[in-house]
Design a protein that fits this description.
This protein is 30% helix and 29% strand. By secondary structure, it is an alpha/beta fold. The termini are far apart.
Length: 272
């Protein structure tokens, strides 16, 4: 829950924020020492291991519940979804899934994550109901991801801060897999880290893997998107772009003298 003295202000924009001289200097410093090729390959090969360690250490304490579902993706809870199927990719411990169900989503939810530890925690939640949720571990980048899913069977797919954790070379694999399982007319809802977000600017030398792609201290990774890149990624696979913009968020706490700017990308795309 947000602190009662905090004010969260969101605004949509078609353009990324303009970089100041200090921001440009921070990005330039990151180039002075990059992640080695050996280390980058290790991070990719052991991605599941690092995420399992993350959830073993943090369990359900790290991410806040994403209670903005009704505001941003209102049709998931206001339309008749009783006979709809939703696939949440990268469900983590259910910080998006459970608030969505409590807000009014009436359909059946498939929830997958690379980390088997995360799936254990989803199933351990007191709100887990096998009649409404099927949670399973799976790698959305792999060619066999769709083997256990029926083609053209999913009504909605959610990608909430998921693509950013995946190597950019594999983003196209993810989108192609989604296209295969989504029904014609099906919708993908996405929110992720935007280009030049505060967290990107704060990475120190030794953490940059490649353009807009970084290693965190715990071995997990983060990519930062432009809206143009997202549009190109989905449109080349055959999706129709419905909405695609930057979300400029400021969290202001006057009592604590905090004014934190964040930049996300948010998109909604449709399979024709």
């Amino acid at each position: 829950m947000d602190h009662p003295t905090e004010t969260i202000v969101d605004s949509l924009s078609d353009m990324p924020q303009e970089l100041t001289a200090d921001m440009k200097a921070a990005l330039k410093r990151q180039e002075s020492r990059l992640v080695s090729e050996f280390q980058a390959n290790k991070l990719e090969a052991e991605a599941k291991k690092f995420w399992d360690k993350f959830y073993k250490r943090n369990e359900c304490r790290f991410f806040k519940d994403r209670n903005w579902t009704g505001r941003e993706f209102g049709e998931l809870i206001t339309e008749d979804t009783k006979h709809k199927i939703l696939l949440e990719i990268g469900c983590g411990v259910g910080n998006f899934l459970y608030p969505l169900l409590k807000s009014g989503f009436q359909g059946f939810a498939l929830a997958c994550d690379l980390s088997s530890k995360a799936i254990e925690l989803v199933k351990a939640n007191e709100d887990y109901d096998a009649d409404r949720i099927n949670a399973f571990a799976s790698d959305v980048t792999s060619e066999d991801f769709c083997d256990n899913l029926i083609s053209n069977s999913i009504d909605y797919v959610t990608l909430i801060f998921v693509l950013s954790a995946i190597h950019p070379d594999k983003h196209v694999n993810v989108v192609k897999n989604i296209y295969r399982v989504l029904k014609p007319g099906g919708i993908v809802y996405l929110r992720d880290y935007g280009l030049h977000d505060m967290t990107q600017l704060r990475f120190q030398p030794g953490h940059k893997i490649s353009t807009n792609f970084y290693m965190r201290q715990d071995g997990t990774r983060s990519y930062f998107f432009s809206t143009e890149e997202l549009a190109d990624l989905f449109s080349k696979t055959g999706f129709q772009i419905l909405t695609n913009s930057y979300v400029n968020r400021r969290t202001v706490n006057l009592k604590e003298n905090i004014d934190v700017p964040r930049i996300f990308v948010q998109a909604k795309v449709c399979k024709p």
